[in-house]
Write a structure and sequence with these properties.
mainly alpha
Length: 71
Amino acid sequence: MHHARLVLVAGGGTTQRQMGILLWALLSHPRQLDDLRQDRSLMKRAIGESIRWNTAATLFNRLVVEDTELS
């Protein structure tokens, strides 16, 4: 029971922080927020992008799965 409480609280804090990051990003970029309001199917991509862009879990490294050329 104690372990379940620990996992619930630990996961909740990270989720709460990541939701705040996503909300801040959308409020800072009104065009993307409007796009999301118009098409709710973009929500999954928006969440994934917020995790990639500015993650609440900085303990974990992120690796690309394939080479990508930018610009």
